[in-house]
Amino acid sequence: MGTHVNGPLHYAILDPTGNVTALVEDEVAVGLQPEVAARVMERHPEVEQVGFVRMAPLAGKSEGTYAQLRMAGGEFCGNATMSTAALWALRAGEAAQLPCEVMLRVCGASRPVAVRLGRGEDGSFDAGVRMPQALGIQLVRLEAPEVRVGADALTPVVMMEGISHAVIEESSPLYYLREKRDEAVRLVCRWCQMLGADGLGLMFLGPGTAERDMEPLVFVPGSDTVVWERSCASGSSAVGMLLAQRRGGPVSVRLREPGGALVVESDPVGPSTWLYGSVRLVGEFTLS
């Protein structure tokens, strides 16, 4: 593991809508977190991302927050935020008094993030996250070797705290990358560098209105990971914010992703965006 990590590390694996997440509960120096994350993901190939959590005492919670979360790559992650709230409830036991609203300090978000947490079926949790609002939405020319992209084919990029997302709809000449996976992986890395983003997701969005199919590809330079994710909470929220901006009013959309469905409710007036999903505990493990 390395001489700077003392003793075994305890971590839990949770499943928020298929975007399987490992949360390490022991303290690990930030510089060592990518190494630890790589070890966990090597041991559990189903894990798509790794975060590091610190629980606050039930009494006298620090700054009014229940827990702190930092992803291995320093990016913001909505599914890991849901998972952290669920893990807090598991650790708190009866003291959690569900349903409740949990406040979390999360990397990539400048303010504490609220999570509405309730009991789901078969020991799972229903969760809703008030997502940080986008810093802005830009139309960007993203060039690909096989596509001549003109001025009329700009791609909307939703810039969020800690990560940005390009929304690629069926009408886009870049939509073919949904099938050309190796090329998509090369391009998301290149585009992330071009945009100077902390991380970049490509949200391949199918047609529809209230229900749409979506497949996410996410690159995080800080952890050196590129994953076709089973679901992406921040990317789903980015889609909701984009659709709300286009409509000029509130939208509710159910996004069918490979791991299941996420629901986004976004209102450009306010503004506010809530993302709803579920979380279940997969298991608890130790890394020596």
Structure commentary:
The protein has four helices and 16 strands. With 288 residues, it is an alpha+beta fold. The chain has two domains: 9-131 and 278-287, Diaminopimelate Epimerase, Chain A, domain 1, CATH 3.10.310.10; 136-273, Diaminopimelate Epimerase, Chain A, domain 1 (Roll).
Percentage of residues in strands = 35-45%
Mean of residue pLDDT? 92
| Number of E strands | 16
The major sheet is characterized as:
8 strands, mixed, barrel
Apparent shape: globular
Task: Order the strands across the largest sheet as they lie in space.
Answer: 1-2-3-4-5-6-7-16
pLDDT < 50 runs, ≥5 residues: none
Measured on Cα atoms, how large is the radius of gyration? 18 Å
Distinct helical segment count: 4
N-to-C SSE string, H for helix and E for strand:
EEHEEHEEEEEEHEEEHEEE
User: Could you estimate the helical fraction of the residues in percent?
Assistant: 10-25%
Work out the count of structural domains: 2
CATH topology of the largest domain, by name, is Diaminopimelate Epimerase, Chain A, domain 1
List keywords for this structure.
eight-stranded mixed barrel; alpha+beta; 19% helix; Diaminopimelate Epimerase, Chain A, domain 1; 288 residues
Topology (SSEs and partners):
Elements (H helix, E strand, L loop, with lengths): L8 E8 L4 E4 L8 H11 L5 E7 L11 E5 L6 H15 L7 E7 L6 E7 L5 E6 L5 E5 L14 E6 L2 E7 L11 H15 L4 E6 L5 E10 L4 E4 L4 H15 L3 E7 L2 E8 L4 E16 L1
Parallel strand pairs: 2-3, 4-5, 10-11, 12-14
Antiparallel strand pairs: 1-2, 1-16, 3-4, 5-6, 6-7, 7-16, 8-9, 9-10, 11-12, 12-13, 14-15, 15-16
